[in-house]
Amino acid sequence: MKHSSDLPSFDAIQAVLSSNRTGSFSGAADELDLTHGAISRRVAIVEAWAGTALFERHGRGVRLTIEGQRLVRLFEQALDLIDSGAAEWRENRQPETVRISVLPSFARLWILPNLAKLEGSPPDLRIELELDRRYAPLGEVDVAMRYGRGDWSDGVAMPLFDEVLLPVASPELALVLGDEPEPGDILRHPLIHDAYPDAWRIWLAERGHRYRPRPQDRRYPDYDLGLHAAAAGSGVALLRAPYGEIFVQNGSLVPISSAPLASQLKFHAITERGSQRRAVRTLLERIRGLSAS
C-alpha cells in the first residue's frame, strides 16, 4: 500500500481507535454517530497515510493487524501525552482554592467586602469560607480567622488590625444622649453585647464605673447583629473600629464619645506550623496588606 505524507486528521484517527475499541466499523459508527461508510473512509485515510492495512475483517467485525496494533499503541500514547500536558496547563491556570474558617460576622464585615482583592485580579485564588462560631481544627482548613490575644498553641498567629472600642448609637438615640455623655447617661439605656461581653466592662471600668450585667441589656451571638440592633435604636453598642466602621460610614450609627479605648483583643489569621502552599502564602500577604491599610 502506498504511503501518504499528509498527516491524518484527528477525526480519522478517532475512527481507527473507535473501531478497535468496539470491534467493528458499525460499532464505531454508532459510538461516533456516523455512517458505516464514513468510518470506512476515515480508516482508509489512516491506512493510506501508514502505507499498510490496519484491520483485517472477520465475521461481522474487525481486528487489528500487527501493524495496526503498533500504530494504535502509538496513537494512544500520543493522546495520553497530549491530555496530561493539557491537564497540567489547565491546573496551572485554575485559581487555587484556600479554605478559611471564619466567624459569620467577620465574613460579612471584612472578608466579603475585600473578597475581590483577596482573590486577585485576574483571580488566582478561590476562597471558600467555612462559617463557624467555634475554633475549627487547622487540619480541616488552610487558615482560621480567630478573635483573641493570639496565644493559640495549635498554629502560628498573624495579627490583623488593632482595634479601639467606641460607643455608638443610632442617630436618634445619639441626639438624646448629646455630645460626650457621661457613663451614667449611657447606662440609662440598654447596652448591646456581642459574644465577647467583657468589652463594655473594660470600657466602663476605664471611666470609673463597675459594670454588672442587667436584664435590660441585650446580647447577640454575631457582632454585626448587635450593630444592626443598635442602628435600629435598641441600645448603645461598642464599635470595634476599624472593624464595623461601615455602619458609621453609611450613617446607621453615630459615635457618642471621642475617647476610644484600645482593645486587648484582635483578629488573627492562624495557620499550621511549617511550610505553606503558595496559595496560602499569597493569601496571607494580601490579608496583611489590607489589614495594614
Summarize the SSE layout with pairings.
Blueprint: H1 10-22, H2 25-32, H3 36-50, E1 55-58, E2 61-64, H4 66-93, E3 96-102, H5 104-111, H6 115-119, E4 125-131, E5 143-148, E6 156-159, E7 164-169, H7 171-177, H8 183-186, E8 191-193, H9 198-205, E9 218-219, H10 223-231, E10 236-241, H11 246-249, E11 254-255, E12 261-262, E13 266-271, H12 278-292
Parallel strand pairs: 3-4, 3-5, 8-9, 8-10
Antiparallel strand pairs: 1-2, 5-13, 6-13, 7-10, 7-11, 7-12
Helix pairs in contact: 1-2, 1-3, 2-3
Describe the structure using short key phrases.
13 strands; 12 helices; five-stranded mixed β-sheet; rod-shaped; about 290 residues; six-stranded mixed β-sheet
Report on the architecture of this protein:
It contains twelve helices and 13 strands. The chain has 293 residues and is α/β, with parallel strands linked by helices. The strands form three sheets. Strands 7, 8, 9, 10, 11 and 12 form a six-stranded mixed beta sheet that branches. The chain has a five-stranded mixed beta sheet with strand order 4-3-5-13-6. The chain has a two-stranded antiparallel ribbon with strand order 1-2. A hairpin with a 2-residue loop joins strand 1 (55-58) and strand 2. The radius of gyration is 34 Å and the shape is rod-shaped. The termini are far apart.
